[in-house]
Design goal:
Blueprint lengths: L1 H8 L2 H25 L7 H43 L3 H11 L10 H15 L11 H16 L2 H9 L3 H27 L3 H21 L3
Length: about 220
């Protein structure tokens, strides 16, 4: 139910990447604390506060930049429409459409179908409006969901730190839980791409751990 609501406003790739980003950030903090701090020096409450604050802050940053990016892309497309309408001839306008909608990353298609697609888009955009684009309510909901998703990824690390007296054990449980979630995210991601689920889950978990180790080694 929640996933369906999220995907009304965010593309699955966007929501999954935000969750991965938040998990890797949280895992960097908990793994770094366990690897770099002496057992007696770990303060579970301070670490929990730092973990929550970090994820909320980066969720807010991501949300704000999502809004900036959305408005930028829409107004860039408006500029394309203006250029199309100002083009001296149809050949130049068609070239602009081909450059903008190259279709390189799309499934292979026949050349005549590519040309037909570009002609259809050209016909649509040559008659489109040129008023500057603005953000809508759905955009703010999507940004709010980004903030929520990144913030929630702190929970697997927060709960053991808040519920267990042994901070070192709490960090171990937090790290295991976060790595397991990385696997589950990869497993779920595969359903959108048709990739092997178990292999993708394992790959995402291993990649996440590798990125965390690099980040910890670099002092991140």
């Amino acid at each position: 139910m929640f996933a369906r609501f999220v995907h009304r406003y965010l593309d699955p790739s966007e929501s999954l990447l935000e969750i991965l980003f938040g998990l890797i950030m949280a895992l960097t903090m908990t793994a770094g604390a366990r690897l770099l701090e002496e057992r007696t020096e770990i303060n579970a409450i301070e670490l929990a506060v730092g973990l929550a604050g970090c994820n909320v802050a980066w969720g807010l940053i991501d949300a704000v930049f999502y809004l900036f990016g959305t408005k930028f892309n829409r107004n860039r497309r408006v500029q394309l429409v203006r250029r199309l309408q100002a083009a001296p001839d149809k050949a130049e306008a068609f070239s602009l459409i081909q450059d903008e909608f190259g279709l390189e990353g799309e499934p292979p298609m026949r050349e005549q179908d590519r040309i037909a697609f570009h002609r259809s888009v050209l016909e649509l955009l040559r008659h489109a409006g040129t008023a500057r684009a603005h953000l809508h309510v759905d955009d703010y909901i999507a940004a709010g969901l980004i903030l929520v998703l990144v913030s929630l990824t702190a929970l697997p690390g927060l709960l053991p730190l808040l519920l267990l007296d042994d901070a070192y054990l709490a960090l171990r449980i937090a790290n295991i839980g976060q790595i397991l979630l990385l696997f589950l995210i990869g497993f779920g991601w595969a359903s959108y791409t048709g990739a092997p689920r178990w292999r993708t889950g394992a790959l995402i978990a291993l990649l996440g751990v590798a990125l965390v180790m690099v980040s910890v080694a670099l002092g991140g």
